[in-house]
């Protein structure tokens, strides 16, 4: 455990970190900050949500000469949302040091960006295309840059940004410090590192530490056509505070968010086809709790810092284990408890095994909740609301009518039951349309359906159903009442 005070930071940085509420450095921060401060080139690998931004941001801000009007640090990030997120975090880190940070990304007014660039920002965070654009227009000069950071490098590689990044690197002085951060480290990234970095040190936070122990991981074996009902009932029984549902395709995300809305949940979807403005507004609503369920594709959600997520539902099991780790990394952040539930169609059990081999953790089988359990979950929510109303008091205006009811029926239990019934949202059976997705191709060689499968089924019979555990904050769902 490393305290920030032990990392030899200047008072302005310590103050900022304190204000941000960081108590101690995360492992990737503890290991990379001292190396970075020595000026070393660095490759940092750690799971999403482990504080990589501050890991490069803190030493970067320490190096900025705020009296100079030149751009001294540049961070390249794969998407607009990430560029914005990183710039916001850097702004907070650099507030007391008075470092000026500017985000530049496509889809936003370039003239305004040009005006902002003239105001002498010290640090630029941007997407590759827009950074290049500014370089070509000569509205961004990188000849005073001493630190260059590639953030979410694996994602930039996936998105085909290599050429752009190379072009940017050519305009940055050679005698610079280069840092590369990524959740995963496929071979092509190592090659990039060899080409552009000077004998970099590698810091890797082991995959073992990747899955946060606070996250409970379950799987539900469910045929494709039953998935949506199971999802609805899970939400009803577990009443998540903030949930993310992951779907495999854009169409799936659209259909799921529509279907959830039809059934009375406040849900919205994000995927790559949506405009930047739309994605940002959905994210904002989700973060502020106006949307209870966010439906997302892997690409749209990757790397986004969304805190307070209590439940991750994998409507489709991800193709590759790394996506799984990314997905469940959305929950259980900052010491909060979280739960991840993965739907697996019977033919996809082989993929489950591969995910488990990667995370070194078994997922516990879970039985889908029944309609009765979903109803019970909803009743509990109503009960909690009544409980709260009683505690709040202020009921005098209702007591006359209450007495009338009592006189008429003479049976308090029936009256309360009726009130509960009227107030409870019964599990919704509104028909919805979800296009069936073909299951992933069977992985015969890695998985032999027989033994293991039986074993799992045997177990699932004993596994106590874990619904109803998250009963806190029912008020979040008040928006859902029909
Ligand atoms: P990554 O880039 O590794 O996915 P982020 O840098 O986006 O992770 O950090 C995830 C969240 O954790 C952010 O909200 C960030 O403010 C917070 N965070 C970072 N470092 C710490 C820390 N040392 N203590 C507590 N929270 C932290
Ligand atoms: Mg990051």
Describe this structure as you would to a colleague.
- With 482 residues, this protein is an alpha/beta fold.
- It folds into two domains: 4-204, 3-Layer(aba) Sandwich (Rossmann fold), CATH 3.40.50.300; 215-371 and 427-462, P-loop containing nucleotide triphosphate hydrolases (Rossmann fold, 3-Layer(aba) Sandwich).
- It contains 19 helices and 14 strands.
- The chain has helices at 11-19, 27-37, 52-63, 80-94, 110-118, 128-137, 153-158, 162-170, 187-196, 227-238, 250-262, 276-287, 298-301, 321-328, 349-359, 371-392, 396-409, 412-423, 449-462, and strands spanning 42-45, 73-76, 101-104, 123-126, 147-150, 177-182, 201-204, 215-221, 243-246, 267-270, 293-296, 311-314, 338-344, 364-365.
- Helix 2 (27-37) packs parallel to helix 3 (52-63), helix 3 crosses helix 4 and helix 6 (128-137) packs parallel to helix 8.
- The longest helix is centred in the C-terminal third of the chain and has 22 residues, at 371-392.
- The two termini are 49 Å apart.
- Mean pLDDT is 84; it is low at 208-212 and 444-482.
- Residues 22, 25-26, 29, 46, 48-54, 89, 303, 305, 307, 334 line the site of adenosine-5'-diphosphate (ADP).
What key attributes describe this structure?
14 strands; binds adenosine-5'-diphosphate; 7-stranded parallel β-sheet; 482 residues; alpha/beta; Rossmann fold; 2 domains; binds magnesium ion
